[in-house]
Specification:
Protein name: 9299_t:CDS:1
Distance between the termini: 37 Å
Number of strands: 0
Organism: Diversispora eburnea
Pfam family, one: PLAC8
Radius of gyration: 16 Å
Strand content: under 5%
Largest sheet: none
Amino acid sequence: MAYQPTTQMTQVTQMNTPAGTIAIGAPRPWKHAIVTWYFPCITYGQNKTQLEPSASCFWNGLIYCVLDGMLLCWIPAAENRGAIRARYNIEGSGCGDCMAHFCCACCALVQEARELKG
């Protein structure tokens, strides 16, 4: 006998969460999360390029890497997060953006990447 999901279960799995909520959990897809964990500069550069098509992925990633070495990478990353919130009318504050990147930059970058990809 094969497992058959109920209508209620199907609706819950297909429901989209509000874009502005920050959920602590395993980011998906795993491949993207693993790359971000080991090389956050790549995800930051990709996010910046999607946010501003004229921006260079390489140079922005390099800037993030240099600032990461000085423990200041959360500053431009929080600025990007604010720009994403403004673009998609997501509620939040600059303080929340800073804290998201300061406390868990990997989670924040993956969430922003998912938001930018739609």
